[in-house]
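Weekly structure sync - notes
Attendees: PM, LS, DV (DV joined late)
Agenda: review two folding runs queued last week.

Item 1: First target. Sequence and structure tokens pasted below for the record.
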Amino acid sequence: MKIALVAPDDITHYIYRKGLIISLIESGHEVCLISKSGEHVSQLENLGARHIHVNLGRFINPLHDLRLIIEFYQIFRKEKFDIIHNFTIKPNTYGTLMASVAGCKRIFNTVEGLGFMVYDPDEKKILSKTLKIALKYLYKISSRLSEKTWFLNTDDIHYFLENKLINPQKVLLVKSTGINLDEWKLSSAEKVASLKQKMGFHPDDLLIVMVTRALNNKGIHEFLYAMEHLTAKYEKAKFVLAGGAEEDLKRGVPASLLQEKANKYPFYWLGHQNNIIDTFAISDIVVLPSYYREGVPRCLMEGMALKKPLVTTDNVGCRETVDEGVNGFLVPIKDGKSLTEKIERLIQDPDLRYKMGLAGYEKAKREFDEKIIVASLLQNLYQFNDKTC
């Protein structure tokens, strides 16, 4: 079969869907990846996939989006794919509409989190309300045209059903895009100590790590609140943020604020990191106090894979990763005080950190192993049997 996977950019294909791509290719299918081009295109092509560039921007721009819609139609009509599988909002909506017009019979969508569709700092403004209404309408149409939609958490399913955006029979729940546990291996204590020194820390430092873009709704301010209170009490505690600044100033935390905190406190803003495994390897506690409408945050699964205890919010997507008190703690959203208390409990108890880290790894093996996720998609989404695979 000739299968297209459509996503915003090449890096999301490579990080989130590499296992699926490899499995499809090994099963004898021709895989074409449609996205914006970047430095990972060659790595995707080395897997055996073909890449087609589309200029898929993150933000709403009527003229740009019209060009994208035309691009989708031209590609789908020319390539005549047997299956088109879309990821994220624009492929799910524009991509599905154009795939249907171009004659594709099997179209699948993936909702990896609702984000702006549910939460928006400008949600009271007329333009924002209008965009949300339009997006719901587009999703309702695309759900009718697609064969099935894959959701990563139950909250997003409930939202679609309550708003009558999808037929219940077209819903598939597979929690997360998965993580390759063979690639995410725990380093030895000696290597971790060496990595800490290489990255400018003392081997005995206790590192509380958050990996995310510097967005307000990822809980950066709550993280900084906890940092200010706990570094004053615990000399070895260091707070680390790995992630680039956000270009959208309405949603992003100013780089100047992060730099100011780094100059004043034991707070380290590393910016974007290419080798993120090392950042997780040196961590003692992994934190994500997000109140964004997440799918299932990969950074939390990555922490679990490396046996780190988690502190995150009792929020959509985030709560899927934590069994309360077993592999981490859940705190209310926008609650810096609760976040501080739970992090402090883990700072004070190394045995609890160790036990929670082990429990998180076992949970990752049971629920988030990429092999389990991919097998479920092949069988329950694409409905491949032994002959089609």
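Item 2: Second target, run right after the first with the same settings.
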Amino acid sequence: MFAVEQNKLAGTSQTHGEALIAGVASLPTKAGVFRAVSFSFEAGTADHMALVWGNVSGQHEVLTRLHSECLTGDVFRSLRCDCYEQLQAAIERISKEDCGVILYLRQEGRGIGLVDKVRAYALQDRGLDTLEANEALGLPVDARRYNDAAAMLRAMKVASVRLLTNNPEKIAQLEEDGIEVSERLAHQLPANRFNRHYLQTKALKSGHLLDPARMG
């Protein structure tokens, strides 16, 4: 088990300063008992959580997933995206490892927030893709940053990660912030008729590494 002292600062983030491990508790899931580790940051502008499996302290090549909050997908299981399926698949996959971690990052709607996410959905209903909808609202197509994720990994003393992702930007940002990514593992789930265009837009316009054959 990694050493955890509540209210101890460890790991720096260019975004919000040092990561603060605020609390640790067991979290039973259908895949097994994880540990929930809550984080806050020096600037007080974010609170993230890690779902930790096994002993990650000092470990190399820890299977890791960076998952950005998606209320509509994670909670309501919206079929407009693949977020719920990705989160559940990551939990199942990590539970089969000796150790692993899911960083649940509070950056709803690729960082634009829930209110603007629903406004963007309305424009998508009229035919715009996800990027075009954000641009029409005068918003960035992706405002997410992963500096906090790097700080969280440092706070837990994770030595290096194998990253479950289709998004090269996650790898680039973690490495820029000093986290060694030893391997990328594809994390693609089958498309459905509601999210197929969403996934195609990711591949064609956002550079996500997705297999077209699995998008129908």
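Discussion on item 2: The domain at 8-107+144-206 is CATH 3.40.50.10990 (Rossmann fold).
Action: LS to circulate a short write-up before next sync.
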